[in-house]
Specification:
This protein folds into 2 domains: 30 residues; 131 residues, Cytochrome Bc1 Complex, Chain D, domain 2 (Orthogonal Bundle), CATH 1.10.760.10. The protein is built from 8 helices and no strands. The longest helix is centred in the N-terminal third of the chain and has 22 residues. The structure holds heme C.
């Protein structure tokens, strides 16, 4: 009995301690220091598991059709993805290096990501990171699928192709 009371007391003290640290302003939300490794590890695993469980939609367009990929390249350029992630022959904006977590270079991830995952992330965004939800601002599913098709091809897209596709009328 006494043991259980002890656990209860520790729980309450822990709760009060956490409230003081967080609501008292002691916890720093600065993006300058790197996350402690355990926090970075936990955030990455929570993110990947969440995306995997939620990303269940299937493509409504052919992801290997060149016209679809070209449309996706154009949307990728026009919607501002390049500012944060860069693109073939296109540098990301300097400010994106100040984001925590920093936006990954998508061509390095394209092979590991499935189209349904890319679609889900672009549509929903990743809460409390710099990754915006494009569904929230009304970008329709079809356009998002074209973007997913393009991102999947990123390792193979040349600088010239990206330039031609993204500046097409
Ligand atoms: C304002 C900056 C910003 C813009 C604009 C932006 N992103 Fe992101 N994006 C991020 C950040 C930051 C992350 C990393 C989030 C994380 O690590 O949890 C990310 C993550 C991603 C991922 C997930 C990679 C993974 O590990 O699963 C994909 C895919 C992606 N972005 C695609 C896009 C596409 C496509 C666009 C344009 C339609 C776009 N992003 C626009 C900042 C941005």
């Amino acid at each position: 009995m006494r043991f259980l009371a002890m656990i209860g007391l520790l729980g309450i003290l822990g709760g009060i301690g956490a409230a003081v640290v967080f609501f008292g302003g002691f916890y720093s939300i600065s993006a300058i220091p790197d996350d402690p490794p355990i926090v970075a590890w936990a955030l990455t695993h929570v993110r990947n598991a969440s995306i995997d469980r939620h990303a269940v939609e299937t493509p409504t367009v052919s992801l290997t059709d060149t016209a679809v990929i070209a449309a996706g390249a154009k949307a990728f350029a026009q919607r501002g993805c390049v500012s944060c992630h860069g693109g073939p022959g296109a540098e990301w904006a300097k400010f994106s290096e100040g984001l925590r977590p920093d936006p990954p270079d998508l061509k390095d991830l394209a092979d590991a990501l499935q189209p349904r995952e890319i679609f889900w992330v672009v549509k929903n965004g990743i809460n409390m990171t710099g990754m915006p939800s494009f569904g929230r601002i009304g970008v329709d599913d079809k356009e998002i699928w074209t973007i997913a098709a393009f991102v999947k091809q990123l390792p193979k897209v040349t600088d010239e192709q990206f330039k031609t596709w993204s500046t097409a009328p």
